């Protein structure tokens, strides 16, 4: 009997890590994940597969570690000796990166260099295939639409600058040492497992709670920015396909559609039968409902706290290369994505899982 392929995932407890772990287990991989030590449980997104491991022999193993701890990374990679590594771990919140720029640089930038050097220290540079979670945030200030692998970068946040360092580290090590290193330049992708501080999930969770009378108003920042939103399940399939290629390369994954945050909010309310009527200038109080003077009908308000010092106004991806080379296409588009997230959050509210 042949040994199963071994994959190592950093960020396995996050949105993408959890879907990717499921996908690789389905494909018969032995999956190893790096988990940060936390004073409270942080494995909620993978508990279902970890429990299965005890009951049905699913091959999932977790290791404590951190991208800021090089000795620990060398130890894990040398011991596990994976053939594929998916580096999804990151301080992934763009707004928070303005509050924690140095930590973000350490984790999202230098952390990637630590992973690459840990592979070399373990003597695996000729055998490992490495996926780096690069991002459409690299494009930042609009210079070309749609954005593809050849669009120049102009990062607009400490997060994006750190990710740009990582991107170029991969390119450099690929050219310098011939390693199989691939950047997946992924546009926004969401799901019912999306963290609740990202705008899509913040909206769907809040709208579901408003429907049940648990909340009265949704507070948002810039509702005019545009994003190319896909479904995380589609995107982890794309990550895997990238590492099945004989040669490493960089690929954009995107839906090819762009929508404003405003449209996302409208669709989410429409899902619960509320038609939004926006009033006021952008950036002022927004109002919904029939009677504009009725305070209780104001379901969305703008709060300056959620604006970023520099914003990425427009993201729209061109995933033609991924389609041609990987045979990958986004299967879930905007309307279906909102519906999937709304359906899940309404269910969560019903069973008491979204109490705050
Ligand atoms: P999440 O924020 O849901 O998950 C991030 C993961 O990284 C979590 O498992 C988190 O652990 C872990 N992590 C955070 N800091 C460290 C650290 N210092 N050491 C080790 N692990 C750490 O992000 P997503 O799943 O949405 O995204 C996955 C990756 O893809 C990220 O790198 C993100 O920047 C990138 N990306 C995401 C896109 C998206 O739209 N989702 C688009 C493009 C790129 P814990 O659970 O303990 O917090
Ligand atoms: P983004 O996602 O910054 O694109 O990064 P996020 O959902 O945080 O913001 C999207 C847009 O919505 C606007 N916005 C708000 N955002 C948040 N979080 N909260 C609000 O209240 C709010 N109101 C308006 C933002 O200004 C922005 O324009 C995500 C992350 O997953 C990154 O890790 C990843 O690299 C990129 O997507 C691609």
TrEMBL record:
This is GDP-mannose 4,6-dehydratase. Its EC number is 4.2.1.47. Residues 8-341 form the NAD(P)-binding domain. CDD domains: GDP_MD_SDR_e. Its cofactor is NADP(+). It comes from Triparma columacea. Transmembrane segments: none annotated. Coiled coil: none annotated. InterPro entries: GDP_Man_deHydtase (IPR006368), NAD(P)-bd_dom (IPR016040), NAD(P)-bd_dom_sf (IPR036291). GO terms for molecular function: GDP-mannose 4,6-dehydratase activity. It is an enzyme of class 4 (lyase). Signal peptide: none annotated. Belongs to the NAD(P)-dependent epimerase/dehydratase family. GDP-mannose 4,6-dehydratase subfamily. It comes from the Eukaryota. Keywords: Lyase. One of its GO terms (biological process) is 'de novo' GDP-L-fucose biosynthetic process.
